[in-house]
Amino acid sequence: METPSGEGSRLLTDAEFSAAVTAVTSAFGDPTRRRIYLYVREHADGVTATEVAAEFALHANVARHHLDKLAAGGYLTVFVPRPAGGAGRPSKRYRSSAVEASFAPPRRGDDLLVVLLGRALALLPPADAEAMAEEVGEDYGRQLATGMASGDGQRSSRVALHAIADALTAHGFEAHAEARGGSLALIKESCPFFTTAQQHPVICAVDRGIVRGMLAELSGTTDTREQSSRALGDDACVTFV
After folding, report:
1. Angle between the 204-219 and 157-170 helix axes, to the nearest 10 degrees?
2. Residue 119: φ, ψ to 5°
């Protein structure tokens, strides 16, 4: 993977790639922390831990922990405003930094886009809608994986699946990979498409396509099969490789 500067760029080693994914997952893997990050981004003047605590019904120490975690990852900056003449030292504030997450967390407006996508796909014949949704997902998955590639050749399916699980978690899925019955399984216990997918299960084809596209780029594997889907009433979405 090239460094952002372009000049003097180099490829990430597997260790560096893994560390980068771990850092983003640590920052955005928690759903509350993702929402806090989005909230801070909407306030150009910054927010205090007390304001975040009130907004999300958290103890101030918990809110501060989430904010400090995001600041430690470089996604927020911390500053103390100049005193305005009043008594006491102003509370430190947090605001969005110039750094963008490599795996950007979903914006609130994306909820509407997913709903509209589901309705648009529902207007097509089911087979055509599913093929189109999966193709879109696969293209996106390949693009995402291209930015993750270390340049040291393709990974094993096991290593690739763990990397994909981390990337999906940073995108709003709660995903992990494990061995099941002699096969590898990708388990997603949460999904940002969930409500729309219940109404329009064809949306799940986007998810399937993303996984297939990422696997193809990272390991050369394209043979996957779905065992269960939360949108259809199962406890988790499970994909076998």
Report:
1. 140
2. -65, -40
What was the pLDDT predicted at 208?
87
Same domain (yes/no): 126, 206: yes
pLDDT at 186 over 80: yes
Do 72 and 126 belong together in one domain? no
CB 200 within 8 A of CB 122: yes
The CATH number of the domain holding residue 51 is: 1.10.10.10
Q: Is position 129 within any domain?
A: yes
Contact predicate 103/29, CB 8 Å? no
End-to-end CA distance of the chain: 25
The alpha carbon dihedral of 49, 55, 56, 58 has a sign of positive
**Distance set, CA 26 to CA 21, 170, 232 (Å):** 8, 8, 30
Residues 85 and 114 in one domain: no
CB 103 within 8 A of CB 34: no
pLDDT at 28 over 70: no
> Cβ contacts of residue 68 below 8 Å, gap of 6+?
none
pTM here is 0.53
**Residue range(s) defining the domain that contains residue 223:** 110-240
Q: The tokens 């922390």 sit on which residue?
A: 33
